[in-house]
Amino acid sequence: MPTAPNPTTCFIRPIRADLLPKATLKLRARLVAAGAKPADALRVARGIVASARHGRDYLDGMKELLRARGSADTGRALRALDRITARLAKEIEGMAPAFERVVGAAGDGREAQGLADAWFEGGGPQELAAEGRLRNALSARLSALGPVRISDLAHLACLWSDSQRLHAALRGSLASGGEEGLATAALLEALSLLLRDHVLPVDLQGLPGDPGLRDGLPAMCARLSGPTRKGRAS
User: Fold this and answer.
1) Are 194 and 165 spatial neighbours (Cβ–Cβ below 8 Å)?
2) Per the domain annotation, does 177 fall within a domain?
3) What is the residue range of 184's domain?
């Protein structure tokens, strides 16, 4: 009899942690060949790979959150996710100036949207089903401890999906030939659509009236992790 998929089973396989360091040099060479200055290419390559590493940590952190038993374990898992999202936000913000220069140097990237659609599988049945399972599991687990905002569950699941999309984009870039400038430009534009135009302003910072995870996670810690000792962070 078939079993139901685990709610944290990825629909896109992340790059192995031990392979991520090798991606920096290969991506840097690709960017320099497309016309980026070496210093900017190195900063962006490091930033993209670091973001992928934080994304992998986030995927692991979501597993820990669903394994948590009781308010104390839940609080620890939520605080760990808060630290991960803080590092991810800092990384994306820090590489923004160099990213802008590299995107400009590499070309117009007019094939970016098609490339993003092919890599990220946004809105596909498999992704939507996976996100739905995760939101349901989070709702069942967290709502037993206290009030949970629907938008917080949505942001948690969305960043879970976007972390996998980032790995798909990076894997697609490293596996392709990519010598043509247009291919590299499309890669950069697609990553820009993901990191700078979606992950940072939507998942992490949030929209007007809809706090993202940078505000939502501390609030969830306060609501769901139970009372804490005076003078200690919640």
Assistant:
1) yes
2) yes
3) 25-223
Which residues partner with 210 through β-bridges?
207
For 69-88, write each residue's pLDDT tens digit. 889 999 999 999 999 999 99
Task: Tell me, yes or no, whether 230 lies in a domain.
Answer: no
Number of domains in the chain: 1
Does some domain include residue 186? yes
Virtual CA dihedral for 82, 120, 115, 191, nearest 10 degrees? 0
Label residues 89-127 b or e (16+ Cβ within 10 Å = b): bebbeebbebbebbbebbbebebbeebbeebbbeeeeeb
Specify if 55 maps to a domain. yes
Q: Rounded to whole angstroms, how far apart are CA atoms 173 and 26?
A: 10
pLDDT per residue over 179-197, tens digit each? Answer: 555 567 777 777 887 898 8
